[in-house]
Design a protein that fits this description.
There is one protein chain. By secondary structure, the protein is mainly α. It has a single domain, classed as Up-down Bundle (Four Helix Bundle (Hemerythrin (Met), subunit A)), CATH 1.20.120. Helices cover 85% and strands 0% of the residues. It contains 5 helices and no strands. The radius of gyration is 17 Å and the shape is elongated.
Amino acid sequence: MTHLTKHVVLAIAALMLLPVPAPAQQERDMIEVLRAQINTDRQAVVAMNMELSEKQSEAFWPVYKKYHQDRDGLMDERVKLLIEFRDNQVGMTAAQAKQILDDALKLEKQINDLKRKYVSDFEKVLGPRHTLRYYQIENKLDTIINYELASVVPLRE
């Protein structure tokens, strides 16, 4: 298990295993601390695997940071959905289930739209081949996180 994955598992487990909903501010504070650590770890993994020249690096990191700032809002929505699922799992109505599913699908589309939006920005500073490599790295990191989320979030009964 990678360092990044350990932080993600602990974060999700902490949020999902709370017996009663934590106060909203406490959850937001926890999310911010965990996001900062995950983003630091994620950036380190990207840096190790991109093999950028100094010129590419100077151009890449501002685009990367802007992309992740935009992405953070979507990740907040994802956490809210997981918390909503946790809080409503027992006794979930059909309407709640439908709304959670609709929101999750809408969020996935927004995440993909954001990825698509940034392709040209990354290609301007990296070229198509390095942009593909970057998206592969991001996809692998997202897959690790999604795998860990799947192991922590129970199936709806």
